[in-house]
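Hey, quick one: can you model this chain's 3D structure?
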Amino acid sequence: MSDDQRTEGPALDRMLTRRTMIAGGLLGAAGIVANSRRPDIPFVMLERGKLDPLFPKKVGSWEYQSDNGLVLPPEDELRDRLYSRVLTRYYASPNQLPVMFLVAYSSKQDGMLQVHRPETCYPAAGYELMHERFIPLDVGGGLTVPGHYLNARSISRHEQLIYWTRIGNDFPTRWWAQHWAVAKENLKGRVPDGVLVRVSTAAPDDETAMITLKRFLPAMLKQLSPVARRVLFGEAGAPLPGK
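Sure thing. Here's the predicted structure for all 243 residues.
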């Protein structure tokens, strides 16, 4: 082995460590500055009212059947503190697979949306995450958001799901991006809201699941009011009144 080959590994490790430290330092500095600004202006897409009236109970051939049958994190003070409103829906169809729909909304987001992230709550419910990937979701109005596709399996059940998160006007896909989204809003003197949206089914394979979810989701989104679109997608979903 040459001297170059022997030194390549340690050099790469040092470079990656420096990058990690730089990223962490930037986030830490942003957090310190954001906290010093004492943000106190709420930046919310749903000032009052409930989630339930915003979403249709009939979507194509699917009809709302129940609030039950969805995977949720354990009830505790942390979940209650993070989310002011949670909507759960089980939709059934005579000729399609059932679809489960969840919206977890917080009017005051502190960067801890992970409590409802499937990577957390599905394993806590006894599921093993088989594989995952990011997919672009065309949600109408010229807007594309980063969706996260997961395949989860338990002893008795197999689920496939798509979800996305929004904090303020950002759609973070990683923990550091969540904190950065909060910090950016704090630097503007604003306290952002946050939402996690999840749509899932129980199909025999990924291909069938994707067909089902990509039929349901556009049919749902086409029926939404501007208020509902702002809850899911922020100002990109529909302009705020007066803007």
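One thing worth noting: The CA atoms of residues 143 and 195 lie 17 Å apart.
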